[in-house]
Amino acid sequence: MAIAEDNLVLCLVLRAGLPLHQGVLSFFDKSENAFISAYRKHNENDDDFEVIVEYLAVPTLEGKILVLIDPMLATGKTLHNVLKAFKNHGILKQILIISVIGSQLGVDYISKVFPENSHLWIAAIDETLSAKGNIIPGLGDAGDLAFGLKL
User: Fold this and answer.
1) Residue 22, C-beta contacts closer than 8 angstroms, at least 6 positions apart
2) Alpha carbon distances (Å) from 3 to 9, 80, 128, 132
3) Cβ-proximal residues to 33 (8 Å cutoff; 6+ apart), any chain
4) Pairing of β 135-136 and β 128-129
5) Residue 13: closest CA among 81, 64, 60
6) Helix H or strand E segment including 41
7) Please, is 3 exposed, middle or buried when counting C-beta atoms within 10 Å of its C-beta (0-12, 13-18, 19+)?
8) Residue 142 burial (CB count, 10 A)
9) CB-neighbour burial class of residue 31 (10 A; exposed 0-12, middle 13-18, buried 19+)
10) pLDDT digits over 20-65, tens only?
């Protein structure tokens, strides 16, 4: 697939995507950048959570290819909420999702909620999730692994 860099917007999901950003940017160094924060907010039941998006910095997406960078694709809820956050920023030509590890459930979920012009680039897919929605065996929280526990 040929990609025109001047039509590309790299978007990393903060904070987990930060370690991947420089590597992807080194290949697509003429790309625009976008940043979005998304995190799991656990409710009274620790197994139940919602994904909260609080910050978004994005150029116009009209006719662009959006590259979503999120190292772990567990349930797919984060990427779905990210997609919803971009709905008023232009009609995308295509969406590419870069992820290191995911669950089959998450892959199946995003294949249902993302448009047909979306593609997933993923290194490994684990079969199951824990009751808390974590990948099994998985690696834990990507942001915590890179930067330490949230305070």
Assistant:
1) none
2) 11, 24, 33, 37
3) 9, 10, 11, 12, 25
4) antiparallel
5) 81
6) strand 32-42
7) middle
8) 23
9) buried
10) 788 888 888 889 988 888 766 767 766 666 777 788 888 999 999 9
Alpha helices in 10-151 (DSSP H): 18-27, 77-85, 104-113, 142-147
Burial 86-122 (b: 16+ CB within 10 A, else e): beebbebebbbbbbbbbbebbbebbeeebeeebebeb
pLDDT band for 148, please (50, 70, 90 cuts). low
* Cβ-based neighbours of 61, under 8 Å, separated by 6 or more: 9, 86, 89, 90, 91, 92
What are the extents of the domains in the chain? 5-147
Sign of the alpha-carbon dihedral angle for 1, 16, 79, 102:
positive
The SS3 call for residue 149 is: coil
Kindly report which listed range (9-13, 40-44, 75-79) carries the lowest average pLDDT score: 40-44
CATH code of the domain made up of 5-147: 3.40.50.2020
